[in-house]
């Protein structure tokens, strides 16, 4: 009787270990999603950021990068728990020739970033280590809109780059959401500032308006308002 109990117990342990390893393997496989012509547009339109690895199986450099890219994906997913925030995807360019041609992929592997459904022109040229790629994606996820606590301070913003100052009632407005998305897309071209306008504010500046300041503008200059 005791032998039967031990045998059953060992079998149960074996089943539990099998299920655990199967789930771990499945989770690992899902860290990087294989993108094809049938799911490419759906995936890049669903996430704020998509980091793409365009590869070829026969390419030695693609083979070297694959596990590193997988490790970077796991590291980022451990940090970013918010849904539809970031996706790591891979495209087999030998099979998905239409996708490769559309994005002008001529060498392997090529890493590109998609932001809010738009493929960035510049490819990733940083270090191809898991840590470097993780830090790059986390940097890209940072909010590009700087909050200015007091409206008076916004008038003294001076930048080397053009600046856009958004005056909104709060961050939950549709106008602010659009402003933040534009800031994410144009992070290399402009600086973006959010100026809160709480209820009862007596400022002459109209709510949900955007003011443009040219580079190195000084207090007293006339701004363009949109």
Would you kindly provide a written description of the structure presented here, covering whatever features stand out?
- By secondary structure, the protein is α/β, with parallel strands linked by helices.
- It has 2 domains: 33-141, Glutaredoxin, CATH 3.40.30.10; 145-213, Glutaredoxin.
- Helices cover 39% and strands 23% of the residues.
- A 5-stranded mixed beta sheet has the order 1-3-2-4-5, with helices on both faces. It has a 5-stranded mixed beta sheet with strand order 6-8-7-9-10.
- The N and C termini lie far apart (83 Å).
- Residues 8-29 have low confidence and may be disordered.
Task: List the topology elements.
Blueprint: H1 2-29, E1 32-34, H2 40-46, E2 49-55, H3 60-79, E3 86-92, H4 97-102, E4 110-115, E5 118-123, H5 130-141, E6 145-148, H6 151-154, E7 163-168, H7 174-185, E8 191-196, E9 209-213, E10 224-225
Parallel strand pairs: 1-3, 2-3, 6-8, 7-8
Antiparallel strand pairs: 2-4, 4-5, 7-9, 9-10
Instruction: Report how far the terminal alpha carbons are from each other.
Output: 83 Å
Highest-level CATH class of the largest domain: Alpha Beta
CATH topology group of the largest domain = Glutaredoxin
Helix content range? 25-40%
Spans of at least 5 consecutive residues with low confidence: 8-29
CATH architecture call of the largest domain: 3-Layer(aba) Sandwich
CATH H-level superfamily title of the largest domain: Glutaredoxin
Overall average pLDDT: 80
Total beta strands = 10
Q: In this structure, how is the largest beta sheet organized?
A: 5 strands, mixed
- SSE pattern: HEHEHEHEEHEHEHEEE
Tell me the strand percentage band. 15-25%
Shape: elongated
User: Helix/strand/pairing class, anyone?
Assistant: alpha/beta
Helix segment count?
Answer: 7
Number of domains: 2
The radius of gyration is 24 Å
Largest sheet, order of strands side by side?
1-3-2-4-5
């Amino acid at each position: 009787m005791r032998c039967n109990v031990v045998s059953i117990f060992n079998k149960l342990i074996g089943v539990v270990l099998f299920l655990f390893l199967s789930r771990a393997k499945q989770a690992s496989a899902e860290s990087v999603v294989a993108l094809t012509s049938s799911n490419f547009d759906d995936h890049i339109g669903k996430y704020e950021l998509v980091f793409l690895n365009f590869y070829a199986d026969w390419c030695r450099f693609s083979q070297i990068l694959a596990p590193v890219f997988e490790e970077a994906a796991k590291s980022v997913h451990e940090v970013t728990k918010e849904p539809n925030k970031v996706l790591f995807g891979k495209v087999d360019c030998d099979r998905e020739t239409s996708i490769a041609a559309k994005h002008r992929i001529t060498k392997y592997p090529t890493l590109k970033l998609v932001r809010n459904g738009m493929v960035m022109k510049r490819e990733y040229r940083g270090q191809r280590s898991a840590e470097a790629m993780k830090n790059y994606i986390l940097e890209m996820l940072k909010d590009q809109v700087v909050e200015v606590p007091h409206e008076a301070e916004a008038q003294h913003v001076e930048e080397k780059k053009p600046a856009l100052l958004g005056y909104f009632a709060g961050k939950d407005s549709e106008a602010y959401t659009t402003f933040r998305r534009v800031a994410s897309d144009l992070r290399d071209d402009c600086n973006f500032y959010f100026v809160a306008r709480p209820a009862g504010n007596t400022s002459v500046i109209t709510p949900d308006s955007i003011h443009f300041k040219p580079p190195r503008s000084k207090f007293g200059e006339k701004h363009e308002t949109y």
